[in-house]
Amino acid sequence: DAGITQSPRHKVTETGTPVTLRCHQTENHRYMYWYRQDPGHGLRLIHYSYGVKDTDKGEVSDGYSVSRSKTEDFLLTLESATSSQTSVYFCAISPGQGSVTQYFGPGTRLLVL
Amino acid sequence: KNQVEQSPQSLIILEGKNCTLQCNYTVSPFSNLRWYKQDTGRGPVSLTIMTFSENTKSNGRYTATLDADTKQSSLHITASQLSDSASYICVVSADRGSTLGRLYFGRGTQLTVWP
């Protein structure tokens, strides 16, 4: 998985609790992304980062926040988890934009009860 | 509306046979088109990336074609193997100049290869 780890790999939580997912890379890539994948939908971008402390929203950012204090770590936080946020979350990295490959992590399965 | 449509939704073939997966898109302005393979329980892995000027690209037994005029792409798998069983995702990137190109993901074709 191209030097990308995600933690935790599985999590069960209750509605209303905060949840933080971590993405860690060892490739020193500039760009990092958080996606969610749900049945019947393609991967959808939540947030992305183009450098330390530089982040921007994706198409489904409501209810999520991110932080990137170091090149290697990109955190996704659900401030108050809802059942609609039950999903598989993928982190991805790339060295640049344009016609550049994105490398995906192994995913985190999140169940919000 | 920018969209990526893949067909068929699912496909079952016998080991050793060839198959072709289709991707139609309406994304504009076009930047590039990617095919990913996603094994069950794992993240997607890139197979090919094609820009406007490329109409075919191979990666081992995988060959992708692109017709930018008709906005269609196909992924041809030759001599299928059991390990080819996976979801194949077509992704089209929109050119937004200096800002991050927006990626549009298809829902994938689920391929099952039977022995």
Which keywords apply here?
heterodimer, A: 113 residues, mainly beta, 7-stranded mixed sheet, 4-stranded antiparallel sheet, 55% strand, globular, B: 115 residues, 6-stranded mixed sheet, 5-stranded antiparallel sheet, 11 strands, 0% helix
Spatial extent as radius of gyration of chain B = 14 Å
Chain-averaged pLDDT of chain A? 93
Q: What's the order of the H and E elements of chain A?
A: EEEEEEEEEEE
- The proportion of residues forming helix of chain A, as a percent range, comes to under 10%
Largest interface: A-B, 25 and 24 residues
- Strand-residue fraction of chain A? over 45%
Oligomer: heterodimer
Structural class of chain B: mainly beta
Question: What report would you give on this structure?
Answer:
The complex is a heterodimer of chains A (113) and B (115). By secondary structure, chain A is mainly β. Chain A has strands spanning 4-7, 10-13, 19-25, 31-37, 44-51, 54-57, 64-70, 73-78, 87-94, 103-104, 108-112. The mean pLDDT of chain A is 93. Chain B contains no helices and eleven strands. Chain B has strands at residues 4-7, 10-14, 19-25, 30-38, 45-51, 56-59, 62-67, 72-77, 86-94, 102-105, 109-114. Helix content of chain B is 0%, strand content 58%. The N and C termini of chain B lie far apart (41 Å). The mean pLDDT of chain B is 92. Chain B is globular, with a radius of gyration of 14 Å. Chain B is mainly beta and 115 residues long. Chains A and B meet through strand 5 and strand 10 of A and strand 4, strand 5, strand 9 and strand 10 of B.
Give a quick summary of the entry.
The complex is a heterodimer of chains A (113) and B (115). Helix content of chain A is 0%, strand content 55%. With 113 residues, chain A is an all-beta fold.
